[in-house]
């Protein structure tokens, strides 16, 4: 089923007469092509896309499922939306309430000739399970990320700073075919690795450091994500123990990952390994999050999600142990949930690498 048809299916219940898509990611999902600016309206009879002169040609050439209309100072987004409201006798218009500023909501509420109905959760829900073509794009994004990690192992050396390594990482992602970054890469070393979302700084890499790199890229609108922790020169006995514990926990989580299993159960399988090793208090975040068009999507594999995970959800597997002031370890793969288990998209080795 094309994504635009999924959105049209929401109109069959009669809860709303049409959908207003204002967020870039749901417009991309509906159109299966990303236009930087614009607004879309989906009705039972058809779909419309409104954008200005900067993007009108791209929209006309790449959105065959939409009637494309140009906006300009005399015909704003609101004017174009009201045209469609009148043409299709729309009385209730579903919208993305979590991705609209209050100021924009007030403007739309005042000017549109239809009642706005919050529909964010239902609009977003379709993205939880990926179509085969989406998975292919995510596999390609992950290939770029894996290749970048392989190349970085030949670059990392004592004396370079965390910022230096981040710059090398970003350059290689783009050089290897990325269209963008999934998020600002996390590159931390030594005691800074105890901060799960540490910010790269001017600290120089030193022998005896753990180095954690959490990064991903965007390929044709879809994200990759991975984390690897490597060592420079040597590791202590404690560092080796923590690394092996995190890897064991990740493998336990992956073994429990399967469509129909709750996110809490998947998280719990990994969390138990870390707790049994005596490090339970040092694993504070969830085991994994979904990703796709956005780097963080739903559903999640964490302690709060008791709902069964859907087939073809793409979920990260990223337990960690973080010892404040000393070091931390995180290992992250991306998995696709199947009826029988999961497919691991990340192909980079997970054994402790000492450079």
Describe the protein in words.
- Strands 4-3-2-1-5-6 form a 6-stranded mixed sheet, with helices on both faces.
- Strand 13 and strand 14 (297-301) form a beta hairpin.
- With 355 residues, it is of the alpha+beta class.
- The N and C termini lie far apart (47 Å).
- 33% of the residues lie in helices and 22% in strands.
Question: Any key phrases for this structure?
Answer:
355 residues; alpha+beta; six-stranded mixed sheet; three-stranded antiparallel sheet
List the helices and strands and how they pair.
Blueprint: H1 3-9, E1 18-21, H2 24-31, E2 39-43, E3 47-51, H3 56-62, E4 66-70, H4 77-87, E5 92-95, H5 102-111, E6 115-118, H6 120-125, H7 132-152, H8 162-175, E7 180-181, E8 186-189, E9 210-215, E10 217-219, E11 222-223, E12 226-231, H9 237-256, H10 263-276, E13 288-290, E14 297-301, E15 314-317, E16 320-323, E17 327-330, E18 333-337, E19 342-344
Parallel strand pairs: 1-5, 3-4, 5-6
Antiparallel strand pairs: 1-2, 2-3, 7-10, 8-9, 9-12, 10-11, 13-14, 15-18, 16-17, 18-19
Computed structural class? alpha+beta
Strand content: 15-25%
The termini sit apart by 47 Å
- Give the number of helices: 10
- The mean pLDDT is 96
Helix and strand pattern = HEHEEHEHEHEHHHEEEEEEHHEEEEEEE
Percent in helix: 25-40%
Taking all Cα atoms into account, the compactness measure Rg is: 23 Å
Assign an overall shape.
Answer: elongated
Spatial ordering of strands, largest sheet: 4-3-2-1-5-6
Q: Any low-confidence stretches, pLDDT <50, length ≥5?
A: none
Q: Please give the largest β-sheet.
A: 6 strands, mixed
Total strands? 19
């Amino acid at each position: 089923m094309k994504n635009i048809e999924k959105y049209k299916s929401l109109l069959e219940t009669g809860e709303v007469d049409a959908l207003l898509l204002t967020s870039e990611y749901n417009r991309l999902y509906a159109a299966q092509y990303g236009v930087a600016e614009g607004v879309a309206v989906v009705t039972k009879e058809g779909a419309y896309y409104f954008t200005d002169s900067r993007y009108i040609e791209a929209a006309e050439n790449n959105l065959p499922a939409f009637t494309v209309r140009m906006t300009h100072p005399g015909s704003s987004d609101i004017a174009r939306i009201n045209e469609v409201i009148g043409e299709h006798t729309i009385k209730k218009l579903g919208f993305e309430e979590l991705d609209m500023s209050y100021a924009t909501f007030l403007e739309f509420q005042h000017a549109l000739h239809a009642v706005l109905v919050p529909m964010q959760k239902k609009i977003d829900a379709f993205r939880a399970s990926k179509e085969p073509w989406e998975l292919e794009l995510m596999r390609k994004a992950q290939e770029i990320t894996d290749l970048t990690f392989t190349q970085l192992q030949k670059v990392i050396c004592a004396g370079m700073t965390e910022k230096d390594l981040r710059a090398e990482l970003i350059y290689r992602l783009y050089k290897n075919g990325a269209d963008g970054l999934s998020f600002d890469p996390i590159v931390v070393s030594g005691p800074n690795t105890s901060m799960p979302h540490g910010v790269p700084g001017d600290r120089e890499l030193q022998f005896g450091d753990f180095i954690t790199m959490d990064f991903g890229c965007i390929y044709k609108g879809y994200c990759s994500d991975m984390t690897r922790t490597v060592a420079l020169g040597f590791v202590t006995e404690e560092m080796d123990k923590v690394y092996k514990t995190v890897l064991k926990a990740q493998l336990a989580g992956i073994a429990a990952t399967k469509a129909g299993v709750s996110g809490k159960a998947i998280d719990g399988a990994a969390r138990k390994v870390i707790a049994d090793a005596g490090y339970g208090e040092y694993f504070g975040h969830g085991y994994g999050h979904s990703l796709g068009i956005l780097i963080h999507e739903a559903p999640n594999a964490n302690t709060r999600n008791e709902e069964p995970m859907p087939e073809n959800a793409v979920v990260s597997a990223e337990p960690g142990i973080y010892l404040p002031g000393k070091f931390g370890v995180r290992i992250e793969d991306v998995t696709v949930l199947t009826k029988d288990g999961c497919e691991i998209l990340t192909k980079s080795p997970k054994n402790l690498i000492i450079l």
